[in-house]
Amino acid sequence: MGELTAREIGFRIGDAELLTGVDVTAADGRVIGLLGPNGSGKSTLLRVLAGLRRPASGEVRLDGHPIAAMARRAVARRLAVVEQDTTANGDLTVRQVVELGRTPFRGRFDGLGAEDAAAVDEALARVNIASKQDRVWHTLSGGERQRAQLARALAQQPTEILLDEPTNHLDIRHQLELLELLRTLGVTCVIALHDLNLAARYCDRLLLLDGGRVVTSGTPAEVLTPARIREVYRVEASIATGDGRCPRIEFLGPCTE
Ligand SMILES: Nc1ncnc2c1ncn2[C@@H]1O[C@H](COP(=O)(O)OP(=O)(O)OP(=O)(O)O)[C@@H](O)[C@H]1O
């Protein structure tokens, strides 16, 4: 189980300040949800956490080591990223895409070994897409691609997984299966999500972003209050809690004033 921490992250492009003073702690196989309206900085933060973007200020650490000083391959051996747009795999088969997850473990000219094949088989089975492993990528539906991308991440056998809206193309059963799978993996996860009820149900902790800043962080019950939802999303909501259950949110409509 890995520990991924970010302290005082600032990130800008030109004059645009995309992230300001953001702190994140993800550790011990917990699932951390990143919430916030469109454009609040979730995807940008995930890329900074993955070491794909270098922050202007602050630092990301993997088990205490600054990620900026680690070789890409060393990062890829333990941290997997599931991005939103996955059109780039073109003519590869599903299996070939999932095999890409083994790249960090192979020498440049080595083929796949038995251990690699076993990791790929297990990953395909875990997301229930083994029957489509010979299909060409561009023939897959959006939801099938999303599951195959997760299989690629699992084939990496990571200690941390960062996921950008992994459920947005999935039917309700596959949404629930994916989030339950993430919880049972024992892998530290950071997930950007739009569905507040799914976030409340499956995440151990939530981080609510607005305008590139953390508005609040804590347990789902601490973060998801009617006042916060009104303030950040401009939506009226009522929230049912009790019996130790996760908050259940009913959206009443956009704020009128
Ligand atoms: N190259 C860029 N130049 C200027 N602003 C940018 C650039 N790239 C992204 N942004 C802005 O940064 C902000 C954060 O974008 P980001 O994609 O991280 O948000 P998000 O919370 O993931 O949004 P969504 O929920 O819509 O996916 C947005 O306002 C976006 O317009």
Task: Give the overall shape, derived from the CA principal axes.
Answer: globular
User: What share of the residues lie within helices?
Assistant: 25-40%
The fraction of residues in strands falls at: 25-35%
> By CATH's scheme, which homologous superfamily of the largest domain applies?
P-loop containing nucleotide triphosphate hydrolases
Q: Any idea what the CATH architecture of the largest domain is? A: 3-Layer(aba) Sandwich
Residue stretches low in confidence (pLDDT < 50, at least 5 long) are none
Structural class: alpha/beta
The end-to-end span amounts to 46 Å
Reported by name, the CATH topology of the largest domain is Rossmann fold
Order of helices and strands: EEEHEEHEHHHEHEHEEHHEE
For this structure, what is the CATH class of the largest domain?
Answer: Alpha Beta
Rg measurement, Å: 19 Å
The overall number of domains is 2
Mean pLDDT: 92
Hetero groups in this structure are: adenosine-5'-triphosphate
Strand order of the largest sheet: 6-7-8-3-9-10
Largest sheet: 6 strands, mixed
GO molecular function: ATP binding; ATP hydrolysis activity
Keywords: ATP-binding, Nucleotide-binding, Transport
Protein name: ABC transporter ATP-binding protein
Pfam families: ABC_tran (PF00005)
Description:
InterPro entries: AAA+_ATPase, ABC_transporter-like_ATP-bd, ABC_transporter-like_CS, P-loop_NTPase. This protein is an alpha/beta fold and 257 residues long. It has 2 domains: 4-78 and 158-254, P-loop containing nucleotide triphosphate hydrolases (Rossmann fold, 3-Layer(aba) Sandwich); 95-157, no CATH class. The protein contains 9 helices and 12 strands. It has helices spanning 42-49, 72-76, 94-99, 114-126, 142-155, 172-185, 196-202, 220-223, 226-233, and strands at residues 4-13, 16-26, 31-35, 57-62, 65-66, 79-82, 160-164, 188-192, 205-210, 213-218, 235-242, 245-254. The strands form 3 sheets. The protein has a 6-stranded mixed beta sheet with strand order 6-7-8-3-9-10, with helices on both faces. A hairpin with a 2-residue loop joins strand 11 and strand 12 (245-254). Helix 4 crosses helix 5. The structure holds adenosine-5'-triphosphate (ATP). Residues 13, 16, 18, 36, 38-44 line the site of adenosine-5'-triphosphate.
